Structure prediction request, 893 residues.
Amino acid sequence: MAQDDHSGAELTAADSSHAAHESDASPGTALIVQDAFANPGFPPHRPRVTDEDPKREKRAQRTVYTLFYLSALGSLWAVAAYMLFPMESNNVGDVRLNNLFIGLGATLALLALGIGIVHWGKAVMVDVELVDERHEVGGSPETQAAAAKVFADADRESGFTRRAVIRNSLIGALVVFPLPAVVLFRGFAPQDELPVPLLSHTMWRKGTRLALDPSGVAIKASDVTIGSAFHVIPEGLAELEHGKLEEKAKAAVLLMRLDPSELNQLPERESWSYDGIVAYSKICTHVGCPVALYEQHTHHLLCPCHQSQFDVANHCEVIFGPAKRPLPQLPIAIDDEGYLIAQSDFTEPVGPSFWERH
Amino acid sequence: MSTASPTTGTQKRSFTTAAAVYVNERTSVAGFIKELGRKAFPDHWSFLLGEVALFSFVVILISGTFLTFFFQASMAEVHYDGSYVPLKGVEMSVAMASTLDISFDIRGGLFVRQMHHWAALLFVAAIGLHMLRIYFTGAFRKPREFNWVIGFTLFILAMAEGFTGYSLPDDLLSGNGLRIIDGLIKGIPLVGTWISFLLFGGEFPGTQIVGRLYSLHIMLLPALVIAFIALHLVFVVVHKHTQYAGPGKTQQNAVGPPVLPVYAAKAGGFFFIIFGVIALIASLFTINPIWNYGPYDPSPVSAGTQPDWYIGFADGALRLIPPGWEFVWLDRTWSFNILVPLIAIGIFIVLVLLYPFIEAWITGDKREHHIADRPRNAPTRTAIGAAGVTFYAGLWAAASSDILATHFSLTMEGVIHALQAVVILGPFVAFFIAKRVCIALQKKDREIVLHGFESGRIVRLPGGEFIEVHEQLDEYDRWRLVSFETYEPLMIRPNARGKITVGQRFRASLSRWFFEDRIAPVTKGEIESGHGGHH
Prediction:
């Protein structure tokens, strides 16, 4: 900044040659053409209509102040709209009107102001272009030498280079001093908990009834007709005082009933379903979105976030999309009263993969 | 500035003069005014893109400050009791309830909230376009490499601001966004599980995340953005603005209207125009209607979920991974379906960040460059840019793969496979086309300089032949077409010890790739020797 002493020089002072005064910095592989055209210099100044025609100038001035008056009107209108369009009626339409009319007032105020100022600058203010001379950003050799001398003096006076033991121990101390701050971050999560055990278990226990999401009403096997799908939570989750969302984020389940003949079950999991009723974790094994879209006639589940598709008829294996693992299956049975219950917790962690999972 | 000289003002001084003297004697501000007040500021519509970004950020600060007076960043559960009837009695976090109150119970609150959101979308978009302008005109070259890095850092900070802000209302859509972030983080080897655990203060979603994001959103990130913007602008002053080639403009001057008054009027007016456009959009178009989504619940999700536009590329990258890219090795889970997008985006970001240094290394050009290139005059750079834009656009489109499929009645799988091809093959095609187009345009420029332009005047020659008369350009128009530089490919030469290093070879091959096909500007000699010796 301090080098610009030529700010505001007249237009005619421009260099006409492209390469004149260029520094001795290497041009690299740039081709320097000896035979190049010379810069013709600035073209003649072209006056604006407002410079030549006093009527047009007057009109431009009128336009500018009219816009400013309009802007003030817009501001006043926005204030008036604040009062004229209340929204205390519990009616969404009133909110819309309040938003619209305050907004349009503010818009008029701002746009008229902005266009007015720009028009003033372009049509009325003196139309002059100035030429600033550029200087090498690095500054003059004297400045650079003076700066280098400052460092050399400081180094000599402090002994930063000479007193190596002091310097190195300082660096050592500086490296260690942020460590306590890093350790403090452990307190970001509860001190008495570890992530992996939490991720490995859900609220499902042996005998927990399957209940409707969100009402928490237990589901009877006889209510589940072929082709239907239910969004399910463990019974008792809806009544939890604390950690409801955390439990739900792991325990959410989709319950579907297929024609048993269409169900292709793994041999070791044949006892996990009941009469064509199967329960799978609803939490995508990709990054954890709820796999909420069930296409009944294909038995496919689709995750709306990244389009992973799972085939319910084939133990929810992935048939498309970025997920790798099948949705974990919840082993279910029925109790004496005919309600669907879990046989146990999930046999593997649900939801997105994590490093310690295996 | 003022008419009276401040030091000799013993006679009657106007109030403004007196005030100016009073302030100056306590601040030394006169030096700044003298230095900066009449600086020439080069003018071009494309220079306004950075201003759009700056001004929309000011709107974000103003509207955001208003919102902080009402928003409560708490995840404590309450039963909603505001004016929006359909959600009355619904259990939700205080964050969600206070956002609903801003929208339905505070007059003008929805307007400010929508301005804040629209301005944020515009902010990121303007930074992106501004960066494309800088890239395609080579305005990142010495001495502006650091400013490119600062600007790109701002782009990333702006996305971080956007994402943290978007997550604050704790509605269903933003909660699913956080769920995706949680899943992403958990996929990082070694530290992912713990980072997620610490970030969310225990298990997802926990009761901490909104408050933590709020601290980032209104304190740490804005402080960084403001600091980087300040640095960015200081460098604009230090370097002076670039200018496009034109008669009279050289590497040694900066030509334009003075900062005071014309540039200040145009820029100041432009601020109000940007503010006004954002206000207009906010009064007419709804953005992020959280009342339709409802509070966050890990179980439901609506089809067609979309992040804000600037996060789309990352979400799209996740969608494009084919099935099965995850396995267990050494008793640990390696989630390449998450790592590959993260690494690909990481490499992309690093390449963009370092591009000025890479190009400088290839050309070996150590001179300062203050004249912005026309994109056609740097064909390989422009082609690389086109390839990068195609790659980004492919990822971005993938974030809407489901919407594309439903709107155009295509299969989900077909859309994904097509976009996989766009992301992998598209950049090569775009590179090739852009480079050919640039070279063709350069040839056209040469043609015009050598043979003039078609005047539209048809003349019948004595022999009966009709010709269209070509007219020569005047020297000013010609200068715009001939004042550019080309580089030749680097010749491999042994170094001082008589060796050719691997680095040399690599640099030479890159240089060949950059500059093998090149069109030189027309020289005086070519015109004088019978119009290029063509006829």
Remarks:
- Confidence is low (pLDDT under 50) at residues 1-6 of chain B.
- The longest strand of chain B covers residues 453-460.
- The beta strands of chain B are 77-79, 91-93, 243-244, 253-256, 327-329, 332-334, 371-372, 453-460, 466-471.
- Residues 311-535 of chain B form one domain.
